[in-house]
Amino acid sequence: MPLTDFGLDELGDYRPKSTAPHDFDAFWWRTLAEARSQGGAVTADRVTARHLLRTVDVDDVRFPGWNGDPVAAWLLRPRGAAGPLPVVVTYIGYSGGRGLPTDHLLWSAAGYAQLVVDSRGQGHDTPDRHAGEGTQWTEGFMTRGIESPDQYYYRRLITDCVRAVDAVAELPGLDPDRVVVTGGSQGGGLALAVAGLAGDRVAAVLPDVPYLCHFRRAVQISGDGPYQEIAKYLRWHSRHRVEPAFTTLDYFDGVHFAQRATAPALFSVGLMDPVCPPSTVYAAFNHYAGEDRTMTVWPFADHGGGYGSNPPVQLDWLHERGLGTEL
């Protein structure tokens, strides 16, 4: 992939004007209050033997998400580790779900607990039961309910992700004061949203090549990936729906969540990424409210970012901030 966005010098200074809707905070306070008012129990069933794993314990977790809907997650912990453990809450990339426990062994191998959160409607274990409340204009999820912030798909998914952090306090053996949120692409955008909404209950955030940031520019210049679902929708409805669509998207833009997030943050970016253009990642990074923020740059990377080279960077960074595990 060639370079198709700003150069690195320009990206470092790229801080586009970005103003959240006047009722942004009220919208999310109301949304999360409504979800929490639904109640619901957090459950965890031990399923280690089913997956023939010897060095980790695996629990099949359900916790209440948006509207109290049960959301699936895996909880993985190093077997025999003395708690309470720091926990890495992991959100998943676009069109994926929590998969299998064997997909997620890195963090437990490094001594962390890991809560892997299913994505409603995208994974197999958490249906989006309220999908019919908003129109879906294209394949995928980007235009599902786009006519209204209240009906938009990501209102439900982001709420699930915040409620996953709520659930940590109810799961034994985890340290609610050492919660790290992370993910790549869509998962990175969701981690940013949680960092902005959950406040000091997040100890660190690791957004890799984050999606859901700087929507207007992303829709205009991305050469691949799901932003094109929005472009396709606007292509056919451009006369009347451009501003209403972006008005909805403003409530879910990672730049606005970044402006409210203060936890130490380690971003990553691929300078040849056609899915999440580098300027959209830097828009969130340069607006990030926390003083401790670092960008890992992969100059010749596409949307895979640093691939297998990125986890060692994350582990070192967490240890430097006292969020590592005992060796």
Write the layout of secondary structure elements.
Elements: H1 8-12, H2 24-37, E1 43-46, E2 56-64, E3 70-78, E4 85-91, H3 106-109, E5 113-117, H4 153-168, E6 174-184, H5 186-198, E7 204-208, H6 215-221, H7 227-249, H8 254-258, E8 265-270, H9 278-287, E9 293-298, H10 310-320
Overview features:
327 residues, Rossmann fold, 9-stranded mixed β-sheet, 10 helices
Structural class: alpha/beta
Radius of gyration: 19 Å
Strands ordered across the widest β-sheet: 1-2-3-5-4-6-7-8-9
How many angstroms separate the termini? 40 Å
N-to-C series of helices and strands: HHEEEEHEHEHEHHHEHEH
InterPro entries: AB_hydrolase_fold, AXE1_dom, CE7
Pfam family, one: AXE1
Domain Acetyl xylan esterase: 1-314
Protein name: Acetylxylan esterase
Give a summary of the structure in a few sentences:
The protein has 327 residues and is of the alpha/beta class. The chain is 33% helix and 19% strand.
